[in-house]
Amino acid sequence: MPSAPLHTVHVPLEGRAYDILIGKGLLESAGERLKAQFPGRRFGIVTDTAVARAQLPRLAASLDAAGLTHATITVPNGEASKSFARLNEVVEGILAARLERGDIIIALGGGVVGDLAGFAAAVARRGMDFVQVPTSLLAQVDSSVGGKTGINSPHGKNLIGAFHQPKLVLADLDALDTLPPREFAAGYAEVAKYGLIDDEAYFFWLEENRREIFEGGPARAEAIARACAAKTRFVLADEKETGVRALLNLGHTFGHALETATGYSDRLLHGEGVAIGMALAHAFSARKGLAPSQDTTRVIAHLKAAGLPTRIGDIPGGRLELDELMTNIAQDKKVVRGALTFILTRGIGKAFIEKNVDPAEVRAFLAEAIEA
Ligand SMILES: NC(=O)c1ccc[n+]([C@@H]2O[C@H](COP(=O)([O-])OP(=O)(O)OC[C@H]3O[C@@H](n4cnc5c(N)ncnc54)[C@H](O)[C@@H]3O)[C@@H](O)[C@H]2O)c1
Ligand SMILES: O=C(O)C(=O)C[C@@H](O)[C@H](O)[C@H](O)COP(=O)(O)O
Ligand SMILES: [Zn+2]
């Protein structure tokens, strides 16, 4: 039997419970674990070109050693792969490999692969089981957990998708060794998010331990485990986001609008959009008199120290248009009968859901933020 992971976070959803294992060498032991949990099944690995180079050989060797049959479907790396065209390729790849409904899809990669492969698993043969093997920091702390899967539309981020929970999450810390630094920083934005939502102590701990997390010391595994535990809490409370789960969207209404406006390109990674979005959500809350402005300053200082952008003007490649941002914001999935919902804050660790936010107020705020 494989050795115990450093951390295990259990997600006890009724009838769909699963474990998140966090540790070193999990790719090497994946074959044995999968064989024990899914006896007699075949496997379809979905990955992207960069992860296929950096991490697929470890997983494939492990499945081979355990005698597991597997096919691989590879998409180009990058956010643009969360599209109907790539979804079609993945689903057709699953069918061409004759994977049956009872077989298992493995998402090996960052959040793009996880969202795309998870959605393909949700619809291929009307629903197949899938396992998340997150290889980016962002995927290990956020996207591999909780069952949101999907693709983007020119109208907005993640507008097409399904809730489909994985059967297992294997977060191998060794995979992060090959992750580019810009991608690591982008993932860190989602780590900081959990502190900003409702855990001031975690945010302060991050301020103390950020360097060690980036350098790969023991704090890294702890940061990931605490993030997964935090996300699990929200998912258990509100799996389908009818209420409190929306807090996980802190910074995302602004961030998603920016990602759509930049064409889901390298100009702005998701985590970078979230960093700018969280800075804007704090600044907007302070401007409304809801939160102390010192907290905005502190949040921005922390994100900047992590190498993240915090202003719209930090996005390279030309000016963004206010009208376009407002159009994108109007497509947010939290809109109810045309009214905007934002995650605002009373300060660090004190985020809350605000319905009926006045679009004119958002527009006036963004008009200034674009110039800042
Ligand atoms: N479903 C959810 O709950 C959820 C949560 C947060 C974010 N997301 C989504 O996740 C996506 C962002 O995820 P991401 O930041 O992981 O981006 P990503 O999947 O594009 O991965 C980042 C980049 O790093 C590369 N990469 C990943 N792991 C690597 C490794 N170990 N070694 C070398 N290269 C590696 C990838 O090929 C890619 O180029 C967005 O689409 C976002 O909307 C979903
Ligand atoms: O899991 C959630 O819930 C989140 O909101 C996590 C976010 O970090 C993530 O980016 C998610 O994909 C956003 O969801 P969406 O429903 O706003 O598209
Ligand atoms: Zn996110």
Automatic annotation (TrEMBL):
It catalyses: 7-phospho-2-dehydro-3-deoxy-D-arabino-heptonate = 3-dehydroquinate + phosphate. NAD(+) binds at G111, V112, V113, G114, D115, T135, S136, K148, K157. Zn(2+) binds at E190, H252, H270. Its cofactor is NAD(+); Co(2+); Zn(2+). The keyword Nucleotide-binding applies. GO terms for molecular function: 3-dehydroquinate synthase activity; metal ion binding; nucleotide binding. Pfam families: DHQ_synthase, DHQS_C. It is found in: Cytoplasm. This is 3-dehydroquinate synthase. It comes from Paradevosia shaoguanensis. The gene is aroB.
